[in-house]
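Technical annex B. To support the medicinal chemistry partners, we prepared a structural model of the target in complex with NAP, based solely on the information shown next.
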Amino acid sequence: MNILITGVKGMLGNAVKEYFLAQNCNVYGIYRNGEKIDGITSIQIDLTNPEEVKKLEQYKTKIDAVVHCAANVNVNACEEDKNATDKIHVKSSEQLAKLFSNSKFIYISTDSIYDGVKGNFNEEDIPNPKNYYAKSKLAGEQKVIENNANSYILRTNIYGFKQPFSSSLFEWAYTNLEKKNSISGYSNVYFNPLYVNQLAEVIYKIVENNIPAGIYNTGGVDAISKYNFLTLINDTFQFNATISSSELPGMINGVERPLNTTMNIEKIAKYIDMTKYTTRDGIANIKTKIAV
Ligand SMILES: NC(=O)c1ccc[n+]([C@@H]2O[C@H](COP(=O)([O-])OP(=O)(O)OC[C@H]3O[C@@H](n4cnc5c(N)ncnc54)[C@H](OP(=O)(O)O)[C@@H]3O)[C@@H](O)[C@H]2O)c1
């Protein structure tokens, strides 16, 4: 099987690459900066440049599935430069979905397209994104659906780490807890995240099996507060650091954040057994990766 991954050097893209390579797939990976990647066909492209994206024309007949992970996950930066945000989340998604209209197209979306008020959202609930990151990711979903009849919109929330460590929630917490710095976690913010390796496995199952195209909430089985998530990291790694609980007022640096984006995952669970994707297992799995 030939698979094309965008954002292949990112937190999720790298996990998807590793998973598909382990299943003996041929991986084509799009990256923006730095060195080529061993073991795959590395393609250096800035996805916000339509002329560069046209270079992918040569691959379109051989690619079975595209996993579109590239994005700008910096919520504040998205608010500050909406035009640049549209280029990566909306325009590049549209161009790729069109170009690969004969391949399965997996678009990685976000749980923050929901407004975070009622929680336990299902796919029929009307999206109501609260910030520009989420608005543009939702607009990207629409472009993909319009241009690719074989598309899978995976609304998700993820955790994991990069080498060297970056600044995601898990990485920030791990770095501070390891140093015994006391940190604070929001007790009123709820999500049901997946470890990136768990999501990579789900994506593989979608590519491999005959699952209807459509929108899927793709979260873990546990709805957990950010405070409890940090506590689980502290306990799993036996850091014995101090975590206090606090309440998110709804805004960080003037940008609105949804409070309860927990997703109902019954739809995807009709096709894939999601019961094993617990947060406890995800963090335990990370521990084995960090230990090596
Ligand atoms: N992280 C989360 O908490 C979270 C939660 C929900 C949903 N998601 C979604 O999950 C997906 C993966 O997120 P992630 O955490 O793995 O993000 P990430 O680690 O920041 O990776 C994103 C990748 O996209 C690449 N990229 C960005 N702009 C590009 C461009 N113009 N051309 C080519 N490549 C470009 C980045 O390259 P550079 O390194 O060069 O910038 C980076 O490697 C995204 O679609 C995101 O919206 C993430």
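Notes passed to the chemistry partners:
Residues 7, 9-13, 32-33, 46-48, 69-73, 88, 108, 110, 137, 156-158, 168 surround NAP (CB under 6 Å).
The chain has a mean pLDDT of 96.
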